[in-house]
Design a protein that fits this description.
mainly beta; elongated; three-stranded antiparallel β-sheet; 11% helix
Length: 270
């Protein structure tokens, strides 16, 4: 397919591709929204700073200004290469926790269902946040809710400022500034579970049984070190730190060391 936005020369017969006509209609509707709704285009500029792109609202409900859309993909695909290269637009829907964690945008104008509108995908913007704890400094999507984000100890939006208190509050966030995260390569699995474990590939949701046949669920990580004075009869001590992770596996924090006796040495000699 050729470029639907190719210019014509004087005297050339003109046929307007459907893609071009629809784009002109979208542009006209966008212009009308800017002139008639919510303060116009000039009010948008002073309330956000970052990367803005067009997103088509593919959900069955309208999205209000400063609402949330989970990013699903692109409107144009490489199968329509010219349109894909010349007109960049994304598609989005009501956030789904299984699909859109870390993949969302904030609408900076109202977007009706099936229509395109401007959204901020990276940078600073005002948004409503369901504040769970006042100490939370990050936010992430709210499942099946396009009206707000939800606060937490980690997330892809850093809370720069928010109203005091808990519940739904106005906030200024920076999208694209996620909390701490990390990976674990080939972790050491200690004995005790009674179940063979492939340490190269692990699943935090894996299920199995312990040595007594009781079911267990998930993997718990401990960071520890051992210490022995070298004196026969003195115990070997273990110092354990416990990492804490959020619901999608990002590292939130690590506890202080806790000392305990690992085992005695009896008459062991150095």
């Amino acid at each position: 397919m050729g470029d639907p936005f190719r210019k014509v020369t004087p005297g050339e017969p003109m046929t307007m591709p459907a893609a071009a006509y629809n784009a002109f209609v979208d542009a006209a509707k966008d212009y009308q929204r800017r002139r008639q709704g919510n303060g116009g285009a000039s009010s948008i500029d002073v309330r956000q700073s970052g990367s803005v792109t067009l997103i088509k609202n593919t959900s069955v409900t309208d999205v209000d200004r400063f609402g949330i859309l989970g990013i699903d993909g692109t409107v144009f695909t490489p199968t329509d290469l010219e349109s894909f290269k010349n007109q960049f637009a994304l598609s989005g829907s009501v956030p789904d926790i299984a699909l859109h964690v870390g993949k969302f945008a904030v609408a900076i104008e109202p977007i009706s269902t099936g229509e395109m509108g401007l959204c901020l995908v990276n940078g600073m913007v005002m948004v409503q946040v369901d504040v769970v704890a006042e100490s939370d400094s990050f936010a992430e999507i709210t499942d099946d809710d396009a009206s707000c984000l939800t606060s937490g100890p980690s997330g892809c939006a850093q809370i720069l400022w928010k109203e005091s208190g808990t519940g739904k509050k106005w906030a200024v966030v920076r999208i694209g500034a996620s909390g701490a995260s990390g990976t674990h390569d080939n972790p050491k699995i200690l004995g005790g579970s009674g179940t063979d474990v492939d340490t190269g590939v692990w699943d935090i949701d894996a299920q199995g049984q312990d040595g007594q046949g009781n079911p267990y669920h998930g993997v718990e990580f401990k960071v520890f070190r051992l210490y022995w004075s070298g004196v026969a009869g003195e115990a070997v001590y273990q110092f354990i730190r416990t990492p804490t992770y959020d619901s999608i596996g990002r590292l939130v924090g690590v506890s202080a060391e806790v000392r305990s006796v690992a085992f005695g040495t009896g008459n062991c000699q150095v």
